[in-house]
Amino acid sequence: MNRAIVLLFVAIISLPLAANIAGFDGGDVQAENRELAAMPHLDGSLKSIAEFPNGFSRWFEDHFGFRSALVRWYGESRLFVLGVSPTTAVIAAKNGWLFYADDGGIEDYTNEQPLSSDEVRMWRETLVRAQAWLASRGVAYVFVVAPDKPVVYPEQMPDTIRRVHAESRTDQVLAALRGTSVATVDLRPELVDAKGRERIYYRTDTHWNDRGALIAYQSIVTAIRRQLGSMPPPLTRGEFDEVPEPPTGHDLAGMMGLRRVVLESDLQLVPTRARRAQVVEPAGESAAAEEGRVVTEIPGSPLPRAVVFRDSFMSAIAPNLSEHFSRAVYLWQNDFDADVIAKEHPDVVVQEIVGRHLYTYLPTPEWIPR
C-alpha cells in the first residue's frame, strides 16, 4: 500500500516534466496577461553557460506542463468558491466588479495619505513653469487627471475598504492650480453624471470603456479649443455606431489567471466616417497601441500639431483625439520633456496622468526650463 502511494506521488509530480518532454507547453500568455520567460539560448560562451541554469528555471516555472490549467483552477476556486481574488493585485468587489489594487490604486481610493505641503508645492511649481515655458513659445498647455475606476464607482467597492480622508491627491493638485494660468481638466463631474445613464468603465478592466473615453476626449478637446479656437469641435455621440463586442477577458481577469474564464462584453463606439489620422510610427499600429511612442498624421492637413504625455488611460482616447491634429506625438511618460517639444514644434501640449500615479510619481520643478 505504501509503495503504491509513493509510486502514485512520483507519477503525479513527474507529469508536468513529462508533458514538457512530450512537447506540451503549459504556459498561456493570453490567460496570464504578461510576457512569459523565454527559453535561454546557449551559444557556447561561458556567459551563456553560466546563466543557463537560472534562465531555464525561470522558463520552466512559466511553461511547465499543465501550468495554465492549474493557475486557472486555483483562480476559479478562490473567486467562485471563496469569493476572494486569487491575487493581491486585484480586488473582487460587488456585482462582479474587479478593481486594480496595485500601483497606488487602493491608496487613490482611500485617500489615506494626502500630499504634503512640499509635494503640493512641487506639483504647482512644475506645472506653472511648464505652462509659462510653453506660453513663451506660443504653445498651449492642458493638464488632465484621469480618474481611477473606484473614484467613479465607489459604490461597487467592498464595504471593508473605507476612505480615510475626504480630500484626494487629485483634489489637492487641482486646488493648488486654481488662480494660475494652467488649464486643467477635471473629468470626474462629467463621468459621475454619465454613469447614471450607462456604464462607462469596464467591470473587469482597469480602464474606461469607449463611452467613458468619449466623454474624456470631448472634455479635453473642449479645453484645447479654448486656447486654439481654430480646432474643429469634438465628435458627438451621434457620430458613432454602437457595436456589441464579443465577450472577452480584460486586464484584471488576466491578472487573476482567468482571462479565458471571466469574460465581459461591451459596446464599441465605431465612427460612422473613416478616420483621417494615420499611424506613421510604429508603422502598422493603431493609434490606441500601448507603445512608448505613437505618432499619427493627417497628410496635407492644416490642423495644429500636438505632443501628448500620457499613460494607459489615453489609449482609448487617442484614435479620436488624433483627428484634430495634423501630427500628434503620444509619449508614454509622466515627465514633461522639453527636448521633444523643441523638436516637434507643437501648437499644444497635453499632459495626462491617472489619479493613482499621484501616489507613485512626483515631478521635479528643476527639470522644467525657464
Descriptors:
370 residues; alpha/beta; 2 domains; 7-stranded mixed beta sheet; 13 helices
Topology:
Layout: H1 2-21, H2 29-32, H3 46-63, H4 67-82, E1 90-92, E2 98-100, H5 105-110, H6 117-135, E3 140-146, H7 149-152, H8 169-177, E4 183-186, H9 188-194, H10 210-225, E5 240-244, H11 251-255, E6 267-271, E7 278-281, E8 293-297, E9 305-310, H12 318-321, E10 327-332, H13 338-344, E11 348-354
Helix pairs in contact: 6-8
In brief:
This protein is 36% helix and 15% strand. α6 packs across α8 (169-177). It is built from 13 helices and eleven strands.
Could you please describe the fold and organization of this structure?
This protein has 370 residues and is α/β, with parallel strands linked by helices. The chain folds into two domains: 2-65, no CATH class; 115-364, no CATH class. The chain is built from 13 helices and eleven strands. The strands form three sheets. A seven-stranded mixed β-sheet has the order 4-3-11-9-10-8-7, sandwiched between helices. Strands 1-2 form a two-stranded antiparallel sheet. A two-stranded antiparallel ribbon has the order 5-6. α6 packs across α8. The longest helix has 20 residues, at 2-21. The radius of gyration is 24 Å and the shape is globular. The mean pLDDT is 88.
